[in-house]
Write a structure and sequence with these properties.
With 417 residues, the protein is an alpha/beta fold. The protein has two domains: 2-188 and 367-416, Ribonuclease Z/Hydroxyacylglutathione hydrolase-like (Metallo-beta-lactamase, Chain A, 4-Layer Sandwich); 198-362, Metallo-hydrolase/oxidoreductase (Rossmann fold), CATH 3.40.50.10710. The protein is 26% helix and 23% strand. The chain has helices at residues 68-71, 87-96, 162-170, 198-211, 225-237, 246-254, 274-283, 299-305, 318-323, 344-355, 371-381, 396-400; strands spanning 2-7, 16-21, 24-30, 58-62, 83-86, 110-112, 118-120, 123-130, 137-144, 147-151, 177-181, 216-219, 241-245, 268-271, 296-297, 309-312, 331-334, 360-362, 385-389, 414-416. Helix 4 crosses helix 5 (225-237). It is globular. The mean pLDDT is 96. Bound molecules: zinc ion (2 copies).
């Protein structure tokens, strides 16, 4: 079996790997570079048959998880090339399509299930569920011709599914090559990044919610289910109703998990902001409202119950909330990557918060493993070779894993597994 990286060799994002054995090929991830525009970037890597679907040696695309830097270019590939992704990850992306440009129906040919092997031509594929900020994320073991490659996908050991990471350490697949993500490889100490774990995010959010006199506004990614759980738990501890928007409630339902906060729960409400009301009306999608009707809160109710609420907030809701006069004594929690706050939309948001005297607190933990956890994974798996991917500094792997055999490969270069 041989492999070549098409994206991710020297960048965080755009992940794409092509595997070949016996003249048959498999693609693992087909992501967008992080700085690409989701709606404009349609170019594909130089993989025969990807655009046309007329090369029978191209057997399929495995998608490790539902982040755009891993699936974002799949819609540009021919639908004739079969796609494989986690079943819940697929449902979430499909449901998200109604609300956000990051949503899409990938029309999968099959699904990844935790530790359930299946075959695609000469390739035996075994997915391993990962702890990551995307729900239903996998690493994959791919075996062919007696060789074994483990692709880590994106992973961490400090989220709400940390037990899944510990299980991987206890019972790792045997692999000749570990293709390992190194998003945070340049960090020497973990404390440089502020909060480290999902539990710490929950505790920081709880402190803020408890100290806030008015409404607590929470900004987070609707598809980050770990974060949803952390913020829900913080709201519950602070004796506040956790209020989703229709997008969030829809994604929570799409997880298909009774353990994830749902609109039907006593501690959960749903506010449908104007932009979503307009969309529902325009599309005639009133069936989307029916499941949340009993949990629904209206703008005119917000001022009265503000001090008992954590409200899922997006910048598009700002004018509507100002009109609802519910912002006295409010606070805002930023629970996403802080770098977004420096972009034009983040600058605009901060200036709106300033104008309304709403202090902004940041509480975020990375979706990616610390160097210490990556070292634990390499030690547990003890592959013959480690190849860096999803990293801006592949050469640092040589320093961080000096006991292992690190092999750095460029984009576009074939190498033997
Ligand atoms: Zn990811
Ligand atoms: Zn990624």
């Amino acid at each position: 079996m041989r492999a070549r990286i098409h994206g991710g060799a020297v960048e965080i994002g755009g992940s794409c790997v092509e595997l070949e054995h016996d003249s048959e090929r498999l693609v693992v991830d087909l992501g967008l570079p992080l700085d690409a525009r989701l709606d404009h970037e349609t170019w594909l890597p130089a993989i025969a048959g990807l655009a046309t679907g007329d090369d029978p040696s191209l057997l399929g695309i495995l998608i490790s998880h539902g982040h755009p830097d891993h699936y974002g270019r799949v819609p540009s590939a021919s639908e004739k090339v079969p796609r494989y992704i986690g079943e819940d990850a697929h449902r979430i992306l499909k449901e998200a399509a109604f609300f956000a440009p990051t949503g899409v129906d990938l029309k999968p040919a099959g699904f990844l299930h935790d530790r359930r092997p299946f075959e695609i031509g000469p390739f035996k594929v075994t997915p391993y569920l990962s702890d990551h900020s995307a729900f239903d994320a996998y690493g994959v073991l791919i075996e062919a011709g007696g060789r074994r490659l483990y692709y880590s996908g994106d992973l961490r050991g400090h989220g709400r599914k940390a037990a899944v990471f510990e299980r991987l350490l206890r019972d790792p697949p045997a692999a000749d090559v570990l293709l390992l993500e190194g998003t945070r490889i340049a960090e020497l100490t973990s404390s440089a990044r502020g909060l480290e774990t999902e539990k710490e995010v929950e505790d920081a959010a709880f402190q803020l919610f408890r100290q806030t006199n008015g409404v607590a506004l929470a900004l987070y990614s609707a598809q980050n289910i770990d974060r949803l759980v952390s913020l829900y738990k913080a709201a519950k501890r602070a004796d506040r109703l956790f209020v989703l928007d229709l997008y969030g409630a829809t994604i929570a339902a799409a997880t298909n998990r009774p353990t994830i906060p749902q609109a039907s729960w006593a501690g959960v409400g749903v506010f449908v902001p104007l932009s979503q009301r307009i969309r529902v009306k325009r599309e005639g999608a009133f069936d989307r409202i029916a499941p949340i009707r009993s949990a629904r809160l209206y703008p005119e109710q917000l001022a009265e119950i503000a001090d008992r609420v954590v409200l899922t907030f997006r910048a598009s809701m700002s004018a509507e909330l100002a009109r609802a006069k519910c912002l006295a004594g409010a606070s805002a929690l930023w629970s996403m990557w802080p770098g977004y706050l420096e972009r034009p939309s983040g600058v605009e948001l901060r200036s709106w918060l300033d104008r309304h005297d709403i202090p902004l607190t940041i509480a975020h933990a990375s979706g990616h493993a610390t160097v210490a956890d990556l070292k634990r994974l390499v030690a547990a798996m003890s592959p013959a070779r480690v190849v860096p991917i999803h990293t801006a500094a592949p050469e640092l792997f040589l320093d961080r894993f000096s006991d292992a055999c690190v092999e750095v490969h460029s984009d576009g270069e074939w190498w033997s597994v």
